[in-house]
Amino acid sequence: MTESSSEAVILAEEKIKQKPPPLYKILLLNDDFTPMEFVIEVLKLFFSMNQEQATRIMLRVHTEGVGVCGVYPSDIASTKVKQVIDFARKNEHPLRCVMEEN
Prior knowledge:
Blueprint: E1 23-29, H1 36-47, H2 51-64, E2 66-73, H3 74-90, E3 96-101
């Protein structure tokens, strides 16, 4: 006759705190050549703003030199910046768009 002994193994639940990914602000920078209407079009097209929101941001870019278009995770922000710059160049405007950590 054999005896079997069983050992209980207890696994402790480990709580891992994950930080949310860093967010980045997308900024439009003022220049003296890009028409205001084009900036409004960009804001509506790439940042899903309505006419009033886009006009408000465009005026901030015009008067203060910079305006925040939105805050996104890194990969989305970099894609949007590239899309805006490509669209501006395709339409022969020197509009500048950058991202910075929030």
